[in-house]
Amino acid sequence: MEAISRFAGSVAHDLNNFLTTISLSSRLLLDGLLESDPLRAEASEIKEACDRLAGFTKELLKIAFEKLPPPEPLSLGEAVLAASEAFREKLASNIQLVVSVHERSGQIRADAAHLIQLVNHLLANAADALSDGGQIKVRSSQIESARWLENSELTERRRPFAQLTIEDSGKGIAPERFARLFEPFNSDKGKGRGMGLTTVYGIVKRTGGQIKVSNSVSGTKVEVLWPLVN
To answer: Which of 8, 83, 142, 195 might form a disulfide with 116, Cβ 3.0–4.6 angstroms?
Structure first.
């Protein structure tokens, strides 16, 4: 993540320098053209492309330099339920969203806005995998331990953890993409910028959690664990 952050910051910095020149030139060009001038449409397209690319550089800069607010205790279950119900309105009619929030999911230390952003990205990826319809299951719970944590950075593996699980009934992720799952620009959907899972990984790490993705031809499952607040 440190290498990705440095690369993202460097690319965004250089890209902004070029964008400033192009954007300023396109604005000056538009100001000098009459509404009826046929060149105005081309100049407008240049400006719009610059604006879209400026949004892209902001995403890069967020990965490179964004500092999370001081984490405060919050209920994982409440945050997951709020994010899931808000996302439900965006789903196609052939996708079923099943949300199960355990009343004792527990509290973790994280910023609420970033936790909701994490859930949104994971739900969006799950929905993209269900172009022909299917089901997404979202669960929050509390567990005592997880075998896959044995080699993780969470040294206190025997303490209870808060767990978020999101799984879909899609066809799984292509092996070549799965091997580079959290890398930026790693998308095979033909839309988006492939930054969602990179952002998810960054939020998980910055909030002291761990993430695991299981992949098969019958779907993908994402598990995120955080230490509970004492």
So the answer is: 83
- pLDDT category of residue 208 using cuts at 50, 70 and 90: confident
CA distance 129 to 201: 19
Rg (CA), the chain: 21
Task: Please check whether residues 39 and 84 belong to one and the same domain.
Answer: no
pTM of this structure: 0.69
Phi and psi torsions of 203, nearest 5°: -65, -45
* Domain-ending residue, one of 48, 65, 82: 65
Distance between CA atoms of residues 146 and 159, nearest Å: 10
The domain total for the chain is 2
Distance of CA 22 to the CA centre of its chain: 30
Q: Cα separation of 23 and 52, whole Å?
A: 11
User: Can you tell me which residue has the tokens 């969006």?
Assistant: 124
Return the pLDDT at 62. Answer: 63
Average pLDDT in the chain: 81
Report the CATH number at residue 196.
3.30.565.10
